[in-house]
């Protein structure tokens, strides 16, 4: 009887009590270090296996690399049009062997044409892992992370993010874009003009991060903007410029029409799936005109809200890093399609927000990023598992397909929230110092 009374609801600890006990435990540095070691061991071993050892020893499909990038590079090396399949089969959806990125990537891969696919696959795995390392190194420097525990936490978040290994499996170029975004973040925080060259190189490889250029205009960073424009123009003229007009005026408008395929984690994908349910598994391609209009309205609204939050600069290196996080976080909401592998670029706002939240003890921001991570990584993996197993509950499958979009929204909201909090704290700082000085003067006068 006494044992049963202990488990009576009135005798159980409240949620607030449990939360307070966890916060007290996390305030203990030794406990935090032990927690990181226990969590970091399995996460690190799993990443080394999935992201390095397994693809090097046993290989992966790397379907995007082999079927799209290298096919386009081979045609370009032979003097043929790399966008031929978009002309014959159509490129309403950026899937399959159609090459739908700017000419630069195929142009750069021309020397690899004819290289053994096994050897090329190993080189790509090394390049992509090196890109992740470059991103982490630049980001930690930009955020001025000197504490090993915070650095370890940020690294663990990065290597456990499912789109990272997804890019390695598919041989996607997005991890290279992530490395370039890390270089740009470092330069942006330090006010260095050369960050514009890194940003332009990323945009010339893939247009996903083109909206980031609006931040340069908003903050009137003319030297960085000039570096970006000159670099972008130079790379575009250097890399098979004869195909540039075809890409801009034929391929790009076609793929920007959007898709309702379940892999599309953008608001446009959600709208298309609602208006045209048969697009979910690709039975119907493209997106209806009504969905395209609604998608455009959502994109403009998301960009307007972000720029309104960024209307006035947040002082200091921390403020500049938060601004960079916000403009990167909005990019999946602006584009008409965001594949799961594209979402690896959200690591930049995720790490920036986590670093700020840990230092400020802001659990709301941490919870938003953690929830976004869970919705993008494991939830998307569960959806793929259910589809492969032939799960037949349509309602559950349709709802799970929107988990990725919900995760993107939460990370975007977190990036805007921390800017508001940082701005409020900065505005209150002079008042607090004035009150402190007044109290000190009063105390000295009384003495």
Task: Give an overview in words.
The longest helix has 44 residues, at 403-446. This protein is mainly α. It has one domain (57-446). The chain is built from 23 helices and no strands. Helix 7 runs parallel beside helix 10 and helix 15 (267-275) packs antiparallel against helix 16 (289-309). The radius of gyration is 24 Å and the shape is globular. 43% of the residues are buried.
Mean pLDDT: 87
Helix content: over 70%
Radius of gyration: 24 Å
Strand content of the residues, in percent? under 5%
- Cα distance spanning the termini: 64 Å
Structural domain count: 1
What is the N-to-C succession of helices and strands? HHHHHHHHHHHHHHHHHHHHHHH
Describe the global form.
Answer: globular
Count of DSSP E strands? 0
Number of helices: 23
Strand-pairing-aware structural class = mainly alpha
Biggest β-sheet, characterized?
Answer: none
Uncertain spans? 1-9, 432-438
């Amino acid at each position: 009887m006494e044992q049963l009374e202990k488990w009576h609801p009135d005798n159980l600890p409240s949620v607030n009590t449990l939360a307070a006990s966890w916060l007290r435990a996390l305030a203990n540095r030794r406990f935090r270090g032990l927690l990181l070691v226990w969590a970091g061991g399995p996460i690190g071993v799993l990443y080394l296996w999935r992201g390095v050892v397994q693809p090097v020893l046993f290989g992966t499909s790397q379907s995007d690399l082999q079927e799209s990038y290298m096919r386009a590079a081979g045609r370009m090396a032979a003097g043929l049009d790399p966008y031929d399949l978009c002309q014959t089969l159509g490129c309403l959806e950026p899937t399959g062997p159609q090459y739908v990125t700017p000419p630069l990537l195929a142009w750069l891969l021309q020397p690899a044409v004819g290289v053994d696919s096994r050897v090329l696959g190993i080189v790509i795995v090394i390049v992509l892992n090196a890109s992740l390392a470059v991103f982490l190194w630049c980001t930690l420097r930009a955020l001025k992370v000197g504490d090993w525990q915070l650095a370890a936490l940020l690294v663990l978040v990065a290597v456990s993010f499912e789109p990272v290994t997804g890019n390695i499996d598919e041989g996607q170029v997005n991890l290279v874009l992530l490395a370039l975004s890390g270089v740009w973040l470092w330069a942006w925080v330090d006010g260095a003009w050369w960050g514009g060259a890194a940003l332009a190189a990323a945009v010339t490889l893939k247009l996903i991060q083109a909206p980031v250029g609006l931040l340069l205009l908003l903050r009137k960073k003319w030297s960085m903007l000039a570096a970006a424009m000159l670099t972008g123009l130079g790379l575009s003229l250097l890399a098979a410029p004869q195909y540039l007009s075809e890409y801009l005026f034929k391929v790009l408008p076609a793929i920007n029409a959007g898709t309702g395929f379940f892999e599309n984690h953008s608001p446009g994908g959600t709208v298309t799936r609602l208006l045209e349910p048969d697009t979910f598994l690709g039975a119907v391609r493209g997106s209806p005109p009504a969905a395209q209009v609604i998608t455009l309205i959502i994109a403009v609204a998301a960009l307007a809200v972000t720029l309104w939050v960024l209307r006035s600069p947040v002082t200091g290196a921390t403020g500049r890093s938060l601004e960079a996080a916000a403009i990167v976080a909005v990019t999946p909401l602006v584009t008409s399609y965001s594949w799961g592998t594209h979402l690896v670029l959200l690591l930049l706002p995720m790490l920036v927000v986590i670093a700020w939240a840990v230092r400020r003890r802001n659990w709301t921001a941490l919870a938003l990023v953690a929830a976004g991570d869970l919705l993008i990584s494991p939830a998307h993996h569960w959806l793929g598992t259910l589809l492969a197993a032939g799960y037949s509950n349509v309602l559950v499958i349709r709802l799970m397909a929107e988990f990725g979009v919900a995760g993107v929204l939460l990370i975007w909201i977190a990036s805007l929230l921390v800017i508001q909090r940082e701005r409020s704290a900065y505005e209150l700082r002079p008042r607090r110092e004035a009150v402190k000085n007044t109290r000190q003067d009063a105390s000295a006068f009384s003495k």
